[in-house]
Amino acid sequence: MPIYESVMQEKPPIVLDIGTAYTKLGFAAEAYPRKIMPTEVVMTATGIRKRLLDYETTEELYDQLVDFLQTIFFKHLLVSPKERKFVLVENVFGPTVLRETLARVLFVHFDVSSVLFVPVHLIALSTLAVPTALVVDIGYSETSIMPVFSGVQIMAAFKDQSYGGRAIHAEIRRQLVATGVKESLLTESVLEDIKVRTCFVTTMERAQARGGDTKQDKPTPAPAVDYIVSDNDAIIQVPGDLRETVYEIMFEPSNERDSLPHLILRSILDCTLDVRRSLVESVFLVGGGAMVQGLLARLRQELQHLLANDPFYAERFHGELQFKFFNAIGKQNFTAWLGGALCGATDLIQTRSLAKETYLKSEHVPDWSNLCDNRPTGS
């Protein structure tokens, strides 16, 4: 697609990817976001920080979005949003109230020129310039899977589960408290730092041996490490068992077949026969949770093991299948933002955006799930 030169020469569109835990922000046609910041706001009355998406009423969400976006525009990007074009990366199954409120804040309060909403799975795939893949987004609040074939999302095969960064943090807290660590030390930032610095995904062989019945079967645990809490110089000893077991919540077998490998296979099975092989050979992991060491190798092992040994899948997948994975362009935690930045540098920003004049007529954002929004004109 051609570069939309007139836009790029004047005011480049602003690209925002507002996640549950972190927000990526920057300008179209740039290779990296200008900043990755916590999705938090400071309460004026108390000075306490809270997550942007923790709200009770729509009015409260509106006020928090105004404060949050003002920080983005005037502290980090140092631009006026007035008459600017925007690209917003969103979950295609995200809450409608968030979408509508965000549009109202941008168009009414900040007087922006236009907004282009782009789905996270599809736009992340655009960074590879390939039309087909099984996109697995491992975020903070959930892990979601969306098959994309020939540039079209197969929404009937969408899967999601609640194991993401938040679930990993809860498991780290549970295991550390069980060893005698004071819970007051385990703030969200400390838990995240322990996760990033010390934890990893172990191999399938070690995980299976760890689940054995006898002590002789148990593998030698990874070495324990000391973590220094910077605020008060307290030392937390992170056991080796914790380091390699916290991510097992993504691979735990259950009768519901809802572990990550099962979720991927079930999503593929919900697609038609003619696209399954293409999806098996093009899995794409994105999101901050996908950056953990050892995840890719373990996931490949688990998927191949299920294909070969689980009768449920063996009779439904035919032929010799080998799972193949794409490597992300740049870091996986901002792959979706990068796709939005690429999209904002094309003529799609001109042809597909929701213009301010159109929005102000109805104060409604068209939605794929709303039948009235998708009726042909005149019907």
Topology:
Layout lengths: L4 H5 L4 E5 L3 E6 L7 E4 L1 E3 L6 E3 L6 H20 L7 E6 L5 H14 L4 E6 H6 L7 E6 L4 E7 L2 E2 L5 E3 L3 H14 L9 H11 L5 H7 L14 E5 L4 E5 L1 H6 L14 H10 L3 H8 L2 E4 L8 H15 L1 H4 L20 H10 L3 H4 L2 E2 H7 L17
Parallel strand pairs: 1-6, 6-7, 8-14
Antiparallel strand pairs: 1-2, 2-3, 4-5, 7-15, 8-9, 9-10, 9-11, 12-13
Helix pairs in contact: 2-3, 5-6, 9-11
Structure description:
This protein is α+β, with helices and mostly antiparallel strands and 379 residues long. It is 37% helix and 18% strand. It has 15 helices and 15 strands. The protein has helices at residues 5-9, 58-77, 96-109, 120-125, 165-178, 188-198, 204-210, 240-245, 260-269, 273-280, 295-309, 311-314, 335-344, 348-351, 356-362, and strands at 14-18, 22-27, 35-38, 40-42, 49-51, 85-90, 114-119, 133-138, 143-149, 152-153, 159-161, 225-229, 234-238, 283-286, 354-355. Strands 3-2-1-6-7-15 form a six-stranded mixed β-sheet, with helices on both faces. The protein is globular and about 70 Å long. The two termini are 32 Å apart. Mean pLDDT is 91; it is low at 1-8.
Secondary-structure content class: alpha+beta
Number of strands: 15
Euclidean distance between termini CA atoms:
32 Å
The proportion of strand residues reads: 15-25%
Helix coverage percent: 25-40%
Query: Topology as H/E string?
Result: HEEEEEHEHEHEEEEHHHEEHHHEHHHHEH
CA radius of gyration is 22 Å
How many separate helices? 15
Shape category: globular
**Main beta sheet, described?**
6 strands, mixed
- Which sequence of strands runs across the widest sheet? 3-2-1-6-7-15
Give the oligomeric state of the chains in this entry, treating copies of one chain as homo and distinct chains as hetero.
Answer: single chain
Runs in which pLDDT lies below 50 for 5 or more consecutive residues are 1-8
Average predicted confidence as pLDDT: 91
